[in-house]
Design brief:
Blueprint lengths: L1 H17 L17 E6 L14 H10 L4 E3 L5 E3 L2 E6 L5 E6 L13 H12 L15 E8 L2 E6 L6 H4 L7 H4 L19 E7 L3 E6 L12 E6 L3 H9 L5 E3 L2 H7 L3 H6 E6 L4 E6 L11 H9 L3 H7 L5 E3 L22 H10 L3 E2 L6 E3 L2 E2 L1 E7 L3 H15 L4 E7 L1 H10 L4 E6 L9 H4 L16 H12 L3 H18 L2 E3 L1 E3 L1 E6 L2 E2 L19 E2 L6
Parallel strand pairs: 1-10, 18-19, 18-20
Antiparallel strand pairs: 2-3, 4-5, 5-7, 6-7, 8-9, 9-10, 11-23, 12-23, 13-20, 13-21, 14-22, 15-16, 16-17, 24-25
Length: 538
């Protein structure tokens, strides 16, 4: 009997010694209690290609799977990521990056300067359809990789936002160079160098990631990160309350009805921030339709939209009216400028001046026998899109303009925007952290293959945008973008609508979930530091 007990004890000790040890990061720190974090998103990414996928949901996944050379922290300050350091030449034309040694892709292949060079080449390749990234690299004269850990970027002229342009995830050259880039299987199963590895993409359901134990900055405390596709805000709330997801944005009505409950406050922590994001309507003004080529018409429709009333009533004050292509976090508001007011009388006068006269028989304005009736494309899965479009429909009807609402899923809407196949479209954008990010939205070179969805072409704006790129003095740059702002307000290629205030709830089980103007995931290290609270913290 004693022999059997001794044998059992030895076996138990052996099994204990063979069990998986606690995960440690690169510095030998205990990585935490594991677990998973489930994050609800209202739509499904169009692709997980690291350069062509630039919709909001693709970017969230990319941030966790891949690394960029440089990134930003929760205060929006530039921080090193794959590059440990960098420097500019005295004339500002050459930017040199020094890569971290020993970084590997998730398949074990070393990440080198050749991968950075390949990423740059694919961004510029028209066949890559990297429309959201290309404009930041247009001033580049050449990119060189003198050795495996050095990248030198030479610009044609000093380029003020050069560093921010390299906040782009780095592609694994060895996996793509012998494949059809657009049809590669890695566009749905990406391999990067980031803190999480891709596990699966269940269409219509979720994307699952797993912690990268070999991450250069230490293994994430979480075992898994899951993006759950939940188009409906009501469904997302029910999933949050049921414990099926750990983070969800709540509508103003949902927050008012749920947040005061004691049980809700015990289970969730409130997160509130003004995101680096705004909604807009793009008026396609290239003459492809009979309505929006005249800037007076575009001005009139903006004047007819009661944005402030929408923010106060529908959003219950959780928003701010926008009237500029520059988010206030990127370029502070001009104290001498005024927002576009709600002025239906002025809108009617402008339409009259533009030749659109009210037909009393139909209640619609007409010009040369054409009734003013157009289609507005929207993302049908977004509550803000649906609600604002309905309010706008009624506002425009009151000035004699008919508008029908066409609801599309996100891939269909994005495809129509990129093709210019629309009359007007309601969408939103996450601008970059430099005012130059407006280049893609406003410069005429970005009409085809870029994000200038309104087809806006104005020589004065083009020249000022190019001048802003070459100017390094902050005060001089600010003055340039003020001129751009004033001209865009005059020409009104877009109606800038509002900045929504995000009110969200996160499970109180988690620690290190820090909000920023770009959410809880849009900065570095972000989710790589999320962890489940220990017993002594609960």
């Amino acid at each position: 009997m004693r022999r059997r007990i001794a044998t059992a004890l030895v076996l138990a000790l052996v099994l204990a010694g063979c069990s998986s040890p606690p995960r440690e990061d690169a510095a030998g720190r205990r990585a935490g209690p594991g677990g998973r974090f489930v994050y609800a998103i209202p739509g499904e990414p169009t692709t997980l290609n690291l350069v062509s996928g630039t919709d909001a949901w693709s970017l969230l996944v990319q941030r966790l799977v891949a690394d960029s050379l440089v990134d930003h922290d929760e205060t929006l300050k530039a921080v090193p990521r794959l590059a440990s350091s960098w420097e500019f030449s005295p004339d500002g034309r050459v930017l040199t990056f020094h890569l971290r040694p020993g970084v590997r892709f998730h398949d074990g292949t070393p990440c080198t300067s050749r991968d950075v060079l390949y990423t740059y080449e694919k961004i510029l390749d028209p066949a890559s359809h990297a429309v959201g990234r290309r404009d930041a690299f247009l001033p580049v004269e050449k990119v060189e990789a003198p050795d495996g850990e050095t990248v030198t970027v030479t610009y044609r002229h000093p380029y003020a936002p050069a560093l921010r342009g390299w906040e782009v995830p780095i592609l694994p050259r060895h996996l793509y160079e012998n494949e059809d880039f657009a049809a590669s299987p890695h566009n749905r199963a990406p391999i990067g160098t980031g803190p999480f590895r891709f596990v699966s993409w269940e269409a219509g359901q979720k994307i699952t990631l797993a912690a990268n134990p070999d991450y250069w900055d230490g293994a994430p405390p979480l075992d898994n990160f899951v993006f759950q596709f939940i188009p409906s805000e009501d469904t997302a709330l029910q999933a949050l309350l049921a414990g099926e997801i750990d983070y969800a944005r709540l509508s103003p009505a949902q927050w008012a009805s749920e947040s005061a409950a004691a049980r809700f406050q015990r289970r969730f922590r409130s997160i509130r921030f003004v995101p680096l994001f705004f909604y807009y309507i793009a008026w396609r003004g290239d003459g492809s339709n009979p309505f929006f080529a005249d800037y007076r018409v575009r001005q009139a429709l903006s004047l007819a939209l009661d944005r402030e009333g929408y923010v106060k009533s529908v959003l219950r004050g959780l928003g701010e009216v926008a009237s500029s292509p520059f988010h206030p976090l990127v370029l502070e508001q001009d104290p001498d400028a005024t927002t576009t007011p709600y002025d239906p009388s002025r809108a009617k006068a402008l339409l009259d001046a533009a030749g659109w006269r009210l037909d009393p028989r139909t209640g619609l304005r007409t010009r040369q026998g054409i009734p003013f009736r157009f289609e507005l494309l929207i993302f049908g899965g977004g509550q803000d899109h649906v609600q604002f479009s309905q309010v706008a429909q009624e506002s425009l009807r009151n000035i004699g303009v008919g508008m029908s609402i066409v609801r599309l899923d996100w891939p269909a809407l994005l495809s129509r925007l990129q093709k210019g196949d629309f009359q007007a479209a309601l969408s939103g954008t996450v601008p970059g952290l430099d005012p130059d990010s407006s280049y893609g939205m406003l410069h005429s070179s970005q009409i085809r293959g870029g994000q200038n969805y309104s087809a806006f072409h104005d020589d004065r704006v083009d020249e000022a945008l190019e001048e802003g790129r070459r100017t390094l003095d902050p005060e001089a740059r600010r003055a340039i973008y003020r001129r751009i702002e004033a001209r865009v307000r005059e020409m009104e290629p877009y109606s800038f609508l509002f900045y929504p205030v995000v009110q969200a709830a996160v499970s109180s089980r988690f620690r290190n979930v820090v909000p920023s103007p770009i959410g809880i995931l849009g900065y570095f290290p972000g989710a790589a530091r999320f962890r489940i609270a220990g017993e002594d913290e609960r």
